[in-house]
Amino acid sequence: MGVWCFLEGCLLLLNALVILNEDRFLGPRGWGFAEVSGVRTKTLMSRLIGLIYAAQYMRVPLIALNIIVIFFKLVSG
């Protein structure tokens, strides 16, 4: 396992975080942004939810990064 495989794994994990829907997945489990926005303590769960919402704002750069990775994999084989 090299650095490239690790970076691809991180990209796939980031893609998985971006496609999570608040209404279908996060809200029913109590992981909505409204539930943790007023919490003053920085728990692991609130930080994870903040990471999910931060990743969702980065959709356009993520799409460009996916296109670059797909193009590189097509060229390199």
TrEMBL record:
GO terms for biological process: endoplasmic reticulum to Golgi vesicle-mediated transport; protein transport. Keywords: Membrane, Protein transport, Transmembrane, Transmembrane helix, Transport. The chain crosses the membrane at residues 44-72. Belongs to the YOS1 family. This is Yos1-like protein. It is found in: Membrane. InterPro entries: Yos1 (IPR013880). Its main location: membrane. GO terms for cellular component: COPII-coated ER to Golgi transport vesicle; endoplasmic reticulum membrane; Golgi membrane. It comes from the Eukaryota.
